[in-house]
Structures are given as structure tokens and as C-alpha cells.
Amino acid sequence: MKNQYPGFEIPYSPDLSPLLDGTVEINGRTLANRIVIQPMEGADGELDGSFGELTVRRYHRYAAGGAGLIWLEAASVVHEGRANPRQLYLCEATLDSFKRMVDDIKSISLKENGFEPVILVQLTHSGRWSKPEHASAPLIAYENLEIDKIRPLPNAVIISDEYCKKLEEMHGKAAALAEKAGFDGADIKSCHGYLLGEMFSAYSRPGSYGGSFDNRMRLIINCFAAAKADTTKNFILTTRMNAYDGLVYPWGFGVNEKDGLKPDLTETFKLIDILTTQYGMSIVNMTAGIPYLNPHINRPANTKINKSIEDPMKGVERILGIARDVQRKFPNLPVVASGFAYLQRDTFAVGAGIIKENWAMLAGFGRQGFAYPNFAAHIKENGNVEQKHCVACAKCSDLLRAGATSGCVVRDSKIYAEIFQKQVK
Predict the structure, then answer these.
(1) Is the pTM of this model over 0.90?
(2) How many CB atoms are closer than 10 A to CB 131?
(3) Which end of the chain, N or C, is surrounded by fewer C-beta atoms within 10 Å?
(4) Three-state DSSP state, 226
(5) Of 3.20.20.70, 3.40.47.10, 1.10.10.10, 3.40.50.620, which CATH number belongs to 17-385?
(6) Which residue has the higher pLDDT, 92 or 385?
(7) Alpha-carbon distance values, 120 to 207, 261, 312 (Å)
(8) Percentage of residues of the chain with pLDDT beyond 70
(9) CA angle 8, 372, 99 (to 5 degrees)
(10) Is the dihedral of CA 273, 277, 278, 281 positive or negative?
(11) From the CA atom positions of the chain, what is the Rg in Å?
(12) Neighbour-count burial of 155, counting CB atoms closer than 10 A to its CB (0-12 exposed, 13-18 middle, 19+ buried)
């Protein structure tokens, strides 16, 4: 087939049927299709960490939308690790709220689509981005001088080894609660500069959690071990992980030591191999970059700032290429690829293309879910999506940066346009 994007290596398939293929199995569960709703935060939960009105609305819409896998947004495992006062928080006090949501998603999807989706929850600690009580309260793995040049944190506290051990235990407890709530599995989040992902680049940290590869990976590996010990063998364990931070060495993970902007996936592959062979990871969700610093890497956007840094198509090529390299290294492991939204009307054709060309088994959509949550059902019914796509304006991200609840300002304007006008502009 003729290259749809001259100068860039990006698969493309006008036939969207690969997205609807129902043959991928994850730890004994067969997905109805290869479409994944990615974990996009709305910052619209209740102050206690339970689901708020807009949170419920969003997941009910996802449930009706027809995706085979719904990856619930970040839920903190400790109060002090919440990214904002309205981030979800999975604990004993909020367990019933999470259980109701799982039940709702299953029943709505079964009624509207004829199947129950696989449902995962993302477990997190926001680390340097923690803001549980409105004011920034950063807990960091180490002093990252490259990040501090852009986003200095004068009140940051470096976590102790003892705190790391506490977090391992809390991830195990949160995974057990997730299984009790009815989730099919849990994501031990390690991406986008949040605490577990930041530990990957803790070359300068002393003690048992810094320096060597084994030490830097100790926290996520022990979190997996705790989650595995506290759940049954049928529970899915996974991570949405940064393969590449896009920061110069030694301040970023997955980078070439001589060229920090060039990915080097040696340690990425090594970690994935450990998690799959020793700790039962049965799916991995690949991403890159740190949205607070270099959002063009993980979510290329149609903005002047993005285009002044690099052609957004280069960002799309890079993040899809990372998923391709991981899938080729681990051909039997379901890999979720992401980063399609910039392509707008071609979003789903490229999603189908990466599956058809074996770049990834699954296609994950984040901003697209905000914009048009019913896209999977529409593809099944019509074979296309017409104009129903994200426009890559990045306004959903602007809402989060402004401390507001987030959603699609363009496609869901009745709710989010007013919020955008009040809290962003």
C-alpha cells in the first residue's frame, strides 16, 4: 500500500475491521475487540476519592461505547499521592463507589453491546505532581536537575526507603481492593514522571532504590510482587509504563546516554521481561514523555507550541515506533499502542494499521474517548467514523493544568466549554 504519510513510517488501513477482531486473550479473558479506552483523568471525583457526577457520566458513556477494554483512570493508593483533591482514591472508604462503577460498566455494556468489557483500574502515586489539598505537595524520588530547570519544586520532599516499602504494601492492598470491587485487573502505573516512573531514572539516588538497574526497578517490582501476593491468579497485572522519558541522561529513562532525545529501549525490554516472566504481567500499555514538560512526545497536538518544537507527525511516528519495537521484542505479549489523536480523521485507520502490520495487538484511545466515547460502536455499525474524532486542540489538557475538571471542550461543549471559559481563558 502507498505510504499515506510520505517521510514518516506510520501504518495505515482504510479497512477498520482489524480494530473489531475479537481474538486477543489476556490471562484467560478474550476481548470483544482490540479497542482500548485509555486512562484519562477528569479530576471530577468527590473529595473522599469516590466517583463524582461527571466521573459517573463519563464511564457510563464509555460503557455504552463498545470498547473491548476500559482502562479506568488513575486512582491513588494513598491520600498524599493524589494529583488533585478530586482524583480518585481507592481505599476501604471508597470501595463501594468503585464496585458500583464496575457493576454499572458491565451491565450497561452488556445491554448496549452484548458483552462485558474487560475493566482495569490504574493504581498510582503522583509523586512530584502530588497536590492532595490544592497546594503542591511534591514527594520525589530524587532531585532531577533537568526537570527543576523547567518546573522547580522548592518544597519537594525526597521519599525515604521506608516510605518506598510502605508504598509496596499499599499497592498490594489497593490491588486486593480492586479485585474485591470486581475489576479484572490493575495497572501499577509507571509513566509520565509520576513516582514509580520517576524511580526508573534515579541514577543519583543513594540506598536500595537508586543507582543500579536492580535498585531503580526495585519499587515497581516489589509493587508487582505485593499485588500478585494479595490477589488471585486470575487477576490481571499490568503497567502503563514510560519506555522513554525524552530527557537527557542521567535525568531521563529509556534514553541514549549520548543523545537524550534518542530512545534506547534496552532497560525497557529488561524490565518488561522481568515483569512478564517472574510476576505474571499479561499485558503492557506503552507510552513516553512527561506531559508537564514535553507533551509533544506522548500526545502530539495541533498547537503552535507543539509545532514550534517538532512536526507533530514526528511525535506520532516516535510513540508508535516504540510500541512496535516492544511488540516485536515480545510477540506473545499484548501491547497497547497510543498517540493517535493528532491524526484526527485518520486516527482509526492508523489504529487499524498498527494491528494489521503487527505493530501492536491493541489500539488505545484517550483524548478520542473524551471527544466521542461511542466511536467503537459506530465503527462496528458503520465501518467508519465520519467526522467523529478528536481535533487534537489540547484543551482537555489545558483544563487539567488550570486545576479544572477535564473533558472535550469541542465535542462535549455543553459541559466543558463553560468550564474552559471560566477557568482557563
Answers:
(1) yes
(2) 16
(3) C
(4) helix
(5) 3.20.20.70
(6) 92
(7) 33, 32, 30
(8) 99
(9) 115
(10) positive
(11) 20
(12) exposed
